[in-house]
UniProtKB/TrEMBL annotation:
The DUF7821 domain, residue ranges: 22-198
Domain DUF6630 positions: 223-360
Superkingdom of origin: Bacteria
Annotated protein name in UniProt: DUF4303 domain-containing protein
InterPro entries found in the cross-reference section: DUF6630 (IPR046582), DUF7821 (IPR056723)
Length: 363
């Protein structure tokens, strides 16, 4: 059941915004009546988006969660909920309501985005958690919502949710939040598309067209195109067909096994004009190896005492003049496997990366 309390703020129902009560309530209704959790892909969003309908205390009714609650210094799940309610100015659950064992629902949405340039030195993607609670504003009926936010991983779920902070979606406090809040609008549109929720015409959609990618059959030709693009066409046709056949065979195996096998495929990609470097490198190394990859001298200006990740903007500026871009395969390790792509092919390379599960990152 939905059972919420009054708060101190006005309603969140801007008819032009997708982050509004009417949209949130429609999503809640679908989650409550049809499917209470799912994950799906959205074009332009790394990995999958996770959507869950949870409740207090029901979703915390297992030993690990009970231990987490105890270790946090609280008596029960209602205690956790009341701590969260304090942050968003919702009145506490009373002892009488606890005895009635009422359920208090909330929605938890998780997804990744690209980091800021500064954070990109350390993380390739950043996680965003949006926790949505419904409430009543100047009404006896549910007509509003509040959002708690965290950029952390909920390894200990109770601790993770207790560390969330109240946010105003229109007022991000950091550059990371600015990215996450903007993408949150796109994610909500994707959720509505996935759940077949018809949005009001008054809403200014964050993205035009479909957000959920259509199912595409991965074939040998898919891998051939990928190799062609990441090598800028500098691979013999015979080798492309041989390697594509091998990659497709591995792709069709179980996911876990595939990700283990792909570690042995970097030798091939390194052989088609890549630069394998650890996370620390000098500008002289970058100039030398990139020059080797593109077949001409590359020199770029950079401030003194600039190394490794801090060199990327200067490298990219120099390559952009040649309509090129430096990219890297995600080796899941602490090394880079750099390659150079034609600027106009970058978007397609990223699409093929998603299809083939050979992860590629922009720098």
């Amino acid at each position: 059941m939905k059972d919420f309390f009054s708060n101190l703020f006005g309603r969140n129902n801007d008819p032009k915004s997708i982050v509004s009560f009417d949209v949130m309530d429609a999503i809640y209704t679908k989650l409550y009546n049809e499917i209470n959790n799912f994950e799906f892909k959205i074009q332009g969003i790394h990995d999958t988006v996770l959507v869950n309908l949870y409740s207090f205390p029901g979703s915390f009714d297992y030993k690990e969660a009970q231990d987490e609650i105890k270790n946090s210094g609280l008596k029960n799940a209602y205690g956790v909920l009341n701590e969260l309610y304090k942050k968003i100015d919702i009145g506490p659950v009373t002892e009488e309501q606890m005895l009635q064992e009422l359920e208090f629902d909330y929605i938890h949405i998780q997804f990744y985005t690209e980091p800021t340039p500064e954070v990109k030195k350390y993380l390739k993607h950043v996680l965003h958690n949006f926790v949505i609670f419904f409430c009543c504003t100047n009404s006896l009926e549910t007509n509003d919502f509040k959002i708690l936010y965290s950029g952390g991983h909920f390894i200990n779920y109770t601790k993770g949710i207790l560390e969330t902070q109240s946010i105003d979606i229109k007022d991000p406090k950091t550059d990371i939040q600015k990215i996450g809040f903007k993408e949150f609008e796109k994610v909500l549109q994707g959720i509505c598309e996935y759940l077949n929720i018809e949005l009001p015409e008054s809403i200014q959609l964050p993205s035009q067209g479909k957000l959920i990618p259509e199912e595409v059959e991965v074939t040998q030709e898919t891998f051939e195109e990928f190799i062609q693009l990441v090598s800028r066409g500098n691979v013999e046709e015979k080798l492309i067909k041989k390697q594509s056949k091998k990659l497709l065979k591995n792709f069709k195996k179980e996911n876990k096994e595939y990700h283990e096998i792909i570690q042995g495929q970097w030798d091939f990609f390194e052989s088609i004009d890549c630069w394998n470097s650890d996370w620390k490198f000098d500008p002289e190394d970058a100039e030398y190896f990139i020059s080797e990859m593109i077949g001409e001298d590359l020199n770029f200006n950079y401030p003194e005492e600039t190394y490794s990740h801090d060199l990327f903007p200067y490298i990219q500026t120099a390559l952009e003049k040649r309509n090129l871009e430096l990219m890297t395969y995600d080796t899941q390790g602490d090394n880079y496997l750099f390659f150079v792509a034609n600027k106009e092919d970058v978007g397609r390379i990223l699409q093929l990366s998603e299809l083939t599960k050979i992860e590629v990152n922009q720098l």
